[in-house]
Structures are given as C-alpha cells and as structure tokens.
Amino acid sequence: MSLISDNLQAVRADIRRAALDCGRSEQQVRLLAVSKTFGADAVLEAAHAGQVAFGENYLQEAVDKITFIRQSAPELDLEWHFIGPIQSNKTRPIAEHFAWVHSVDREKIAQRLSEQRPADMPPLNICLQINISGESTKSGALPEDAVSLAKRIHALPGLRLRGLMAVPEPTNDEQQQRAAFRQLKQLNDEIVAQGIVLDTLSMGMSSDLHAAIAEGSTMVRIGTAIFGKRDYAK
Ligand SMILES: *Cc1c(COP(=O)(O)O)cnc(C)c1O
Q1: Span from the CA of 205 to the centroid of ligand 1 (angstroms)
Q2: Number of structural domains, the chain?
Q3: Is 104 a domain residue?
Q4: Over the stretch 57-72, which tens digit does the pLDDT of each residue have?
Q5: pLDDT class for 234, splitting at 50, 70, 90?
Q6: At 116, which CATH number?
Q7: 3-class SS at 195?
Q8: Side-chain half-sphere CA neighbours of 123 within 13 A
Q9: Interval 29-49 mean pLDDT
Q10: Is 59 touching ligand 1 by the criterion CB < 6 Å?
Q11: Residue 233: inside a domain, yes or no?
C-alpha cells in the first residue's frame, strides 16, 4: 500500500472517531483532499484509494492538473473544489473547471461565476467564505454581511449556495478552535432561519479536524495529513 493510501485510511479513521466522540455519524462529514502543490501522480494515487473530492488553491496549477487527469484517466470521475483566493479577472476558468467553490467572499465574484458557468453544466456549488474573528488571512466576508450576501448569492441562477467556509487563525487550543467554528455554525443557523436551505459547513483542516467536527462540520479540507508537508519552493 502506498503512503498516501495509508494516510487516507488514517484520516478517515480520525473523522470516524471525531464523529463518534460527539454522537454524529461519519457519513455526515465529507473528506476533501487538498492536493495543492502536489502533482497529478499524488491525486491519482489518492483517487485509486477511493478518494473522489479534491481541493485546489492555485488556479493555473489546478487547471493544468485537472486537464491532464481528464485526458490521462478519463475513467475517473473526480470532483474538483476551488478553495483559494479569487481574483475577479480569473473567474471564467473557475466556472468552467470546478464543481464547487468554497472561497466566494463578495457579490461581484459570485455574479461573474454565475454568468460564466457553462449552460451545459449543473449550477456551481458555492460556499461563502467568512472571515470569522481572528482570521489571519484577509480573505472572507465580514460576519455581519453574511446574511445579506447569502440572500443575493442564493438568487443567482448559475450557482447553488450550499453553505459557509472559514479558515480560523491557527491555534493548538482546542477550546479556541471550537469557539471559532461555533461562530461559523451560528451564522449558518442565522441564514437558515431566513429560509435559505444550506447543507454544508466547510470547516476543519489537518490540525483542527476534531474541533470542527464537534462543532458541526460537514466537510473537512485535509492536505498535509494525506499528502505530507507542502514544499512551496519546488
Ligand atoms: C491548504 C488549505 C487546506 C489544507 O490544509 P492542511 O493544514 O494541509 O490540511 C484547507 N483549506 C484551505 C482553504 C487551504 O488553503
């Protein structure tokens, strides 16, 4: 067995344990394998070990990888998720190559993705990224704008709003991790209370998966624990 398939098994076991610890079912938590900086060979290894959903941050790298894999392994029906920062002049390739986008944080981006989604593809699944308190990156909408943004994105025909995403400030303190994830869950509940159906809370990475699942995550985005440490200098 390869290292990647061993790691995938271990991550799936972690998800199962975290779900059981809080009385949830592992079926309620999807695993998104974050393959940024890793090549098509690593994605293919994970795919052959049963992984279907892959997350990418860097557009050109992602499009090259997706195109190569579609040509070299057309029998694989992989589901690609864009999770990185989005420049407004780069929305078209995202609308054309991905099934999901987790990093939508302003209306202009959502409008462009909706207009540019090819008519022969299903609506693009969207998570609204929220900058919950203490978030270290500058990405994400402000929590106080979440409800109105969700309403406007929900109305766009090329998109299907699925839920919220956040990348909290890294900390080893599980109580602090949980407090941040709880904020995202509360915003989710506020939007649902407005009559918008959501089914996705995209939260939890390699180092805070347990806390995220305890607070209601339905999709964890795991890179390092599956593929190893990233080498950005390559
Ligand atoms: C890189 C990245 C991940 C994966 O992080 P790991 O710590 O390697 O699991 C998840 N979400 C986003 C938005 C990322 O950029």
Answers
A1: 6
A2: 1
A3: yes
A4: 999 999 999 999 999 9
A5: low
A6: 3.20.20.10
A7: coil
A8: 16
A9: 98
A10: no
A11: no
